[in-house]
Amino acid sequence: MNKLVKSKELMAAKRKYLFEATHYAEPLLERGEGSMVYDIDGNNYLDLNAGQFCLIFGHNYEPFNQVVRNQLAKICHTNTGTLTPEILKAAEDMAGIHGGDLHKTIFLSTGSEANECALRFAKAYTKRNGVLAFDRAYHGLTLASQGSTMGGQYALPIVPQTFSVKTPDKYHLDQLTAEEDLSRCMEDLESKFHQYGDTIAAVIMEPVIGAGGMLPIPKEYLKLVRELCSRYGVLLIFDECQCGFGRCGNWFVYQDIDVVPDMVTSAKAMGMGFAVSAVTFSEKVAEKLEHGLTHFSSHQNDPLAAAIVSFVIEEIREKDLLKSNAVKGKQLLSAIEEVCGATQLLENPRGVGLMCAFDINDRILTDYRNESARFLSAMQENGVLLQAVRQGRTFRLLPSYYITEQEIEKLKSACMESVKALG
Ligand SMILES: Cc1ncc(COP(=O)(O)O)c(C=O)c1O
Question: For a tag site, which of 76, 214, 234, 361 has the least CB within 10 Å?
Fold first, then answer.
């Protein structure tokens, strides 16, 4: 069992100066190495979310550190209107990993910023104001991205131009069968387009929902979205900030389902812990927008970000990580299937590549918020850091691409032990 003495003392003395924007975990971390992090009390933890899903090659990855050091010694930042060779190379590298005619990229800093930018350009392109988003979607918490997150329910004030549609969900959240749920969702979507199609600038969606419950959206549904967008002149934006950049076993999820959006946003994995995101536009859309609406942001097309992106792409290619993520994803999924098979209190193991999750059984554990907090703290005591979404009902796993079989075993045994804290 881990002891937290120094962490608790320091937190008690100093936390009053930090704005409490969220719940902060107790251990104060000092350093990381691979998938492990170490706190100031000398405890170690398996970090199953690679920071906030960003550290895809693990903590303190020396080849990455080297790239950062080299670029810092050259040039890390320029004025927004000035480029370096690294930026031109990174944009070309992005075109090399995207499909269709998604060939034009702008680099920004966070996922929210990328979505904000994509929506801004979609409105300019269509000269419309509406955005169609999903009730379980998470696109960030800046103004437009917030308006399309979770059906706009966290937008302050509510953004009126956002239309929310239900996410097709095969995990019986409405006690429907997958087929009934899907066909109802498809009808609902068609009717929204029928009613509002000519006022909507863009549909923004995650092809695999992250914070909303770790749910892959069915292929048929995505194909229908593409078809309706084309029919009504609406731009389709895929937010692959969480699921993209190799995590799900291909560069981007849309490449697996053969649906090509008009813009793709990416973030997290592409920066290996550094704040970099991107919007990639199709040639068709870019042609109409370039030299019209300008975009300026302090960290737009930074050379350091560009050098990092090129390194991440090269490492994924060289180490064949798309293939190994698919294989490791299966190992991770079978570990959580085993855990869920051993208890009725945990259920719905699922995953696409290294984006996996399982739920708490909220029919048995009706006080699921507290039960989930208990499970997470037992996991922490057993040396594993996990995150929960959907008010604690879903536990998500988005580890480093270099997670090992032993680490997957460690997750399994920590889960088996921690489930004893439930009920
Ligand atoms: C799918 C998705 N889009 C956008 C964002 C927002 O990214 P950021 O927190 O970097 O602004 C997130 C963050 O979790 C995300 O998961």
Answer: 76
